[in-house]
Amino acid sequence: MGLGLIASIIVGGLAGWIASMIMKANTGLLLNIILGIVGAVVLNFILGIMGIYAASAVIPQLIVGIIGAALLIAVVRAIRK
After folding, report:
1. Per residue, what are the HEC states of the chain?
2. pTM score of the predicted model
3. Residue-wise pLDDT tens digits, 13-71
4. Domain range annotation of the chain
5. What are the angstrom distances between the C-alpha of 30 and each of 33, 55, 57?
6. How far lies 14's CA from each of 28, 36, 51, in Å?
């Protein structure tokens, strides 16, 4: 069971915002939410393939979302160059 829709949006937005601050990316609120949610989904998938599962609580998903969003920002920057 996941966090739920509202909690996912809030955690995703926070994770995307933190990742954009770490990566010094100038993104808006909507893109922060998208980066955080997509980053968490992608990284949870990758970790699942490796046999690692993050708990469905807020803090573990926030950490996974931050790392996933930062990775997405890095990939987009690499593709643009």
Report:
1. CCCCHHHHHHHHHHHHHHHHHHCCCCCCHHHHHHHHHHHHHHHHHHHHHCCCCCCCCHHHHHHHHHHHHHHHHHHHHHHHC
2. 0.85
3. 899 899 999 999 888 888 888 888 888 888 989 999 999 888 888 899 899 999 999 99
4. 5-80
5. 5, 25, 23
6. 12, 7, 26
